[in-house]
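Whiteboard transcription, Tuesday session. T.W. wrote the structure tokens on the left side:
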């Protein structure tokens, strides 16, 4: 499916005099101050959609790799050559061997924190340029995009592994290097997660639909899964100091969070259907890998050897199943939003569809209308209907799309 290539506009809402004064005097919260960088970046930076798709797929694989739970006793239930296969597989995403304490990771730790500091300084630099010239040069925007939307998200999981490596290292070893790994790893992890969260929020607020790795109308569910799953690498390391049942409790909580995210993906937070399908497949794989952990942990005859096959097979099956589910939902919605000759009262017809059952449901109808250039979306009937509903304030950031999508 072709990438979305339309613009969206954010409708103006009535504001208090205090907020209006903040705008006039250029005061505001962090989001307001950083927003110009992301808005210009989304407008000016153009890269092939397939490259962004690869980046997104790698980032999701990287996050899902944490469900191998390398700091748990289950990970040790392997035999050769699968021990090496699992080790190298995790290293592809962690950039280090997270369970190897015979070699130092000091160089990578320094690089990790240095990139985090540079990211903050670069953002401040670009905002200073915008303050001086009221614009940011295009080459600077490309560098900002590569740093903020590719490098920073990719380093979230490795930073968590650096901290986790130090936490487990202190249990059986001594040395200041493990304390530094914990401190610097956690600082880097905090920086990268904050920048990633900031980027996701501001892209959702932007008036331009982009093909960046995580272009969403609703950012909270996806960012919750990525950040919490990455944090689980640190938690699994901490659980080494407690009874083994903590791992089980953590796995159950992680499954519940992932199921919640899975349900939210059903409402299409991404404005490209294939991204929703991909995210749904990864959520399903997360649940299955956690169940796989319980099976290996409590059934002695099972080994960790086959886990990599579970990873691959469930992703494939999840993508196939997700494609079917999302296609059916979008097809039904698309048909309902197609012009009906026997409909004389459009608002009553839309009301019969229960579009405003909740804000997520309404958002899903709007996204389908946007993606497929549906009749009742193009003529404004759908947006007008939603704007008259009690939940319209929750939908203001997605309801006023000014140009129709181009579909092949």
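and on the right, the sequence the group agreed on:
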């Amino acid at each position: 499916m072709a990438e979305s290539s339309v613009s969206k506009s954010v409708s103006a809402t009535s504001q208090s005099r205090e907020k209006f004064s903040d705008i006039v005097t250029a005061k505001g919260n962090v989001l307001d101050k950083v927003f110009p960088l992301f808005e210009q970046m989304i407008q000016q930076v153009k890269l092939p959609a397939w490259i962004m798709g690869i980046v997104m797929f790698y980032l999701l694989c990287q996050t899902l790799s944490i469900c191998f739970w390398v700091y748990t006793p289950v990970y040790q239930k392997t035999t050769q050559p699968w021990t090496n296969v699992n080790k190298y597989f995790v290293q592809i995403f962690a950039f280090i061997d997270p369970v190897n304490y015979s070699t130092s990771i000091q160089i990578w730790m320094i690089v990790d924190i240095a990139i985090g500091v540079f990211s903050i300084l670069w953002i401040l630099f670009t905002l200073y340029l915008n303050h001086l010239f009221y614009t940011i040069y295009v080459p600077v925007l490309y560098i900002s995009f590569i740093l903020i939307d590719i490098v920073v998200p990719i380093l979230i999981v490795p930073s968590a592994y650096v901290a986790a490596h130090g936490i487990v290292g202190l249990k059986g070893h001594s040395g200041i290097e493990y304390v530094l790994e914990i401190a610097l790893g956690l600082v880097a992890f905090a920086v990268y997660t904050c920048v990633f969260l900031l980027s996701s929020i501001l892209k959702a607020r932007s008036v331009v639909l982009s093909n960046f790795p995580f272009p969403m109308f609703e950012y909270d569910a996806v960012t919750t899964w990525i950040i919490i799953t990455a944090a689980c690498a640190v938690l699994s390391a901490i659980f080494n100091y407690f009874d083994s049942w903590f791992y089980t409790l953590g796995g159950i909580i992680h499954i519940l969070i992932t199921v919640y995210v899975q349900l939210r993906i059903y409402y299409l937070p991404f404005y490209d259907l294939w991204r929703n399908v991909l995210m749904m497949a990864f959520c399903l794989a997360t649940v299955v890998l956690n169940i796989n952990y319980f099976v290996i942990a409590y059934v002695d005859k099972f080994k960790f050897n086959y886990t990599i096959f579970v990873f691959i097979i469930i992703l494939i099956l999840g993508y196939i199943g997700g494609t079917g589910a999302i296609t059916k939902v979008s097809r039904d919605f698309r048909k309902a939003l197609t012009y009906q000759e026997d409909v004389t009262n459009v608002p009553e017809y839309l009301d019969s569809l229960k579009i405003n059952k909740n804000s997520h449901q309404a958002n899903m109808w709007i996204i389908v209308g946007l993606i497929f250039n549906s009749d009742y979306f193009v003529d404004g009937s759908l947006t007008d209907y939603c704007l008259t509903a009690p939940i319209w304030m929750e939908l203001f950031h997605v309801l006023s799309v000014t140009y129709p999508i181009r579909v092949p």
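Someone added at the bottom: Residues 1-27, 392-408 have pLDDT under 50 and may be disordered.
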